[in-house]
């Protein structure tokens, strides 16, 4: 997947919006800072989230980090592949390492999210 299709949060989550489904994961920058991911707490199916709500945790050999919803919505899918292989977050953060999908409203506000180019500038400091 091309990162040009993604939007990014200042908390280092990415989101891919397809219709009313928003797929969410952590960025390559975030997974690199975390180190080897050993566990991903799945989001709760059916949970209603507001933008900025914590919905998951990623545990690595270095630390545990909360994952925040870049958009509000209802959790409709979790990536069950992470149960068996949490390292997908490291090896394929923008592909098979996604964390969950939310159903969002048609008028979901994305104005606070960054394009890939803007995110690259953000992480460069």
Topology (elements, then pairings):
Blueprint: E1 7-8, E2 13-18, E3 21-26, H1 28-34, E4 37-41, E5 48-49, E6 54-60, E7 64-68, E8 73-78, H2 81-84, H3 88-91, E9 100-103, H4 116-124
Antiparallel strand pairs: 1-2, 2-3, 3-9, 4-6, 5-8, 6-7, 8-9
Protein model, in words:
This protein is of the alpha+beta class and 125 residues long. The chain has a single domain (3-106, 115-120), classed as OB fold (Dihydrolipoamide Acetyltransferase, E2P) (Beta Barrel), CATH 2.40.50. 19% of the residues lie in helices and 34% in strands. Strands 1-2-3-9-8-5 form a six-stranded antiparallel beta sheet. The chain has a three-stranded antiparallel beta sheet with strand order 4-6-7. The chain starts with 6 loop residues before the first strand and ends with a helix.
Summarize the structure.
With 125 residues, the chain is an alpha+beta fold. Helices cover 19% and strands 34% of the residues.
Range of helix content: 10-25%
The strand order across the widest sheet is 1-2-3-9-8-5
Question: Please, what is the average pLDDT?
Answer: 95
Distance between the termini: 25 Å
Taken as a percent bin, the fraction of beta residues is: 25-35%
Q: Remind me, CATH topology?
A: OB fold (Dihydrolipoamide Acetyltransferase, E2P)
